[in-house]
Every structure is written in C-alpha cells, then in structure tokens.
Specification:
The chain has two domains: 268 residues, TIM Barrel; 93 residues, no CATH class. The chain is built from 14 helices and 17 strands. Helix 7 links the parallel strand 11 and strand 12. It is globular, with a radius of gyration of 20 Å. The relative contact order is 0.13.
C-alpha cells in the first residue's frame, strides 16, 4: 500500500509532532484542522474562501449526503469533489455519529443499522460494507468506518456492546475497502477506537484495532458531554496506546484549548462544526478569548474582531459593523464571522506547527492559553 504518512519532527519536550499525509488530492500538513462541510459545503463559505484560508482537507458526511441529494446524484456528477468543485482532499464520516445523535430514529444489530430518515421518515439500512462502498462512490480521500459511539454516562454493559459492534464492523469494513481498492479506489480507511470512559475498554479497543494494521486511527467517543478534565485524561490515556507511525485523529473537537491539548498528546487531525456554527451565531475567536458580538458594548466599537489577525474580515470590518449585521440578521454576518473563525484556527495550528519544529510547543501553548482567558458560553 505504500507509506502515505510521514512524521517530520517531534517536539523534544512533549508528544506534539509535525508530519504530512500524501493523499489522492494532494499533501496535507499535520497537525491539521478540518472544516466541516456536512452537506458538501462548509456553511456560509465558498470553496474559494476555504482555499484562500489555506485548508488542504475538509470533512463531509456520508449519512447526510446519502439522504440528500442521494448517492446516485453524486455518482452521476463523477464524485463529490467534482459535484462541489473542490479539488483538494475530503474526509467523509461514516454516519456513526448520527447513530449516536439521532438515537430515536435507529436500531442497531450485528448486521448494521436500520434507521428512519430524519427528513421524511423513510427506512434505510447501513452496513459496514455498504458504508465503505458509498464512500468509494463519493471518492473520499479518507473514509471512516461505521461505528457505535456510546454517550458520557453510559453503563459498562452498553459501552461493551458498542465496542463489540465497532470492532466487528471494522473487520468487515476493511475487507470491503480492500475490494474497492482492488477495483482502483485510492482513498484511505481509518479505524476508530471506542470504549467510552472505561480505560480497560479503551485499551481493548486499541489493541484489537492495531492488530488489523489500519492506515490511520481515530479516537472516537470524546467530547460527548464529559467534563474537560475527563476529556484530557482519556485523550492522554488513549493517545498513548496508539502506534506512532499512524496518523491519529480525534473526532469532533474545535475549541483552541482542546485542539492544543490534542496536539500536545501527539494528535495529528481534528474537526468540528464549532467555528462555523458559533460564527453563524455571532460568536468570535480572538487571541484574547472568544466573545459574542451581539453585546451592547460593541455597538460603538470600531476596532477589528482581533487586531492581531490578518484575515480579510479583520482588515476591512469593525466589531460595530459586524454587530449591526448580526442584529439585523444579515446573511453577510454569518459569512464574515465564519471566515474569521476558520482563519483563526488555521493560523493557530500553523503557529503550533512552527513551534513544534523549533521544540517550543509547550511554551507556545502556555503563552497562548495565558492570553486566551475569555471563554464566554
């Protein structure tokens, strides 16, 4: 299969590292944040906006694209890249998170998942094999297997059952992926470590996954409602179980603090809807912390969102103007603030990569978080 991931440098003071993934639509430098384009678009932004910021990979969702517009539409367009006119990489989530988040609509068995569409109530079946085939039709550069994510507070027996499904399903997914590869499909298949918040289950899951030699490994089942200190504990514990030669991915994290915690533990990839979802609600990231533009204190504030930010939004628009757009429900506010938030995270991770290369990541993280003191809910 060849080596597609190379570690360039590990910081001498911690596990933080830089590297590169060689994917079908170009190289991806790591650590990397992936903007979420669930429906084949990053909400409120054009593909050219995403390229202008500098992103080399985005995330889309198989479950949602399967329901709308339908795989037959995307197949007729010769794949998701061509359909959305995006010529860089795409990672597709399998729909496993929807098993978690849309629990009232589904039933899980060893065969797979039977669910009712949240759109029209129609009945559908997803199996590990079908999910691989769907993602191959999408043309995913990295695809995730079907898994079961159990929630924070789950009983041990439920966590065990979810883990058993995930493990058996990955074995089937890998065989299906090998079939697609033999037919010419070039995308990678990652595995997912589950186990809820039980260390013995996390270890069991990791060992089973490693034995199957996946091309990359994701840590699932974190940032699902647990306290921050529990997130940090299980992130550190699980990351230490993973082989260093594989790219590591923590699914669903998007705050600067969580991202920096993950980088410190040697995580290479992360994604989250947070920067664009909060952007649409007028909530902005700055080096002094995050804040809500809607507050009255910004009505006469003609400074940029962040004086230290070089994005086109901060160069051209004031807090007062953006607050006005938000209060009048102008679509432009969502577009501009989402752009800024993604630019902010992209620059944060670029600076982290530079710090790792200079063996000063821990001091960089400490200085950033010391300044990043404001985190309004």
């Amino acid at each position: 299969m060849g080596i597609f991931f190379t570690v360039h440098h590990q910081d001498t003071s911690c596990k933080a590292r830089t590297g590169v993934m060689k994917l079908p639509h170009g190289p991806v430098s790591t650590p990397v944040f992936m903007p979420v384009g669930t429906n084949g678009t990053v909400k409120a932004l054009t593909k050219d906006d995403i390229k202008e910021i500098g992103f080399e990979i985005i995330l889309s969702n198989t479950y949602h694209l399967y329901l709308r517009p339908g795989i037959e539409v995307i197949s007729a367009a010769e794949g998701l890249h061509n359909f959305m006119r995006w010529d860089r990489n795409i990672l597709t989530d399998s729909g496993g998170f929807q098993i978690f988040s849309l629990a009232p609509f589904r039933k899980i068995s060893d065969e797979g998942v039977v669910f009712r569409s949240h759109i029209d109530g129609s009945r559908h079946v997803l199996t590990p094999e079908r999910v691989v085939a769907l993602q191959a039709l999408l043309g995913s550069d990295i695809q995730m297997p079907l898994d079961v994510c159990s929630p924070w507070g789950a009983a041990p027996k439920d966590a065990v059952k979810a883990l058993e499904f995930t493990g058996r399903w990955f074995s089937r997914a890998q065989r299906a992926w090998e079939t697609e590869r033999d037919k010419g499909y070039g995308g990678k298949l990652f595995a997912i470590v589950q186990g809820n918040f039980f260390k013995e289950l996390r270890e069991k899951s990791a060992l089973e996954i490693i034995a199957q030699d996946p091309q990359g490994i994701a840590i699932g089942g974190l940032s699902v409602g647990e306290p921050p200190e529990v997130f940090e504990e299980f992130l550190s514990y699980t990351a230490a179980l993973l082989p260093p030669e594989k790219p590591r991915y923590v699914m669903g994290i998007g705050t600067p603090r969580y991202i920096l915690d993950a980088i410190e533990q040697g995580i290479d990839m992360f994604d989250c809807v947070l920067p664009t979802r909060t952007g649409r609600n007028g909530y902005v990231f700055t080096r002094n912390g995050a804040f809500a533009l809607k507050k009255a204190e910004y009505r006469l504030d003609f400074e940029p969102i962040d004086k230290a930010c070089g994005c086109k939004v901060c160069r051209e628009y004031s807090r007062a103007y953006l607050r006005h757009l938000f209060k009048t429900q102008e679509i432009l506010c969502s577009m501009l603030v989402s752009y800024h938030n993604l630019y902010f995270l992209h620059e944060l991770i670029r600076d982290a990569r530079i710090a790792i290369g200079e063996d000063r990541f821990l001091s960089f993280k400490s200085a950033f978080l010391k300044q990043y003191t404001r985190e309004e809910g």
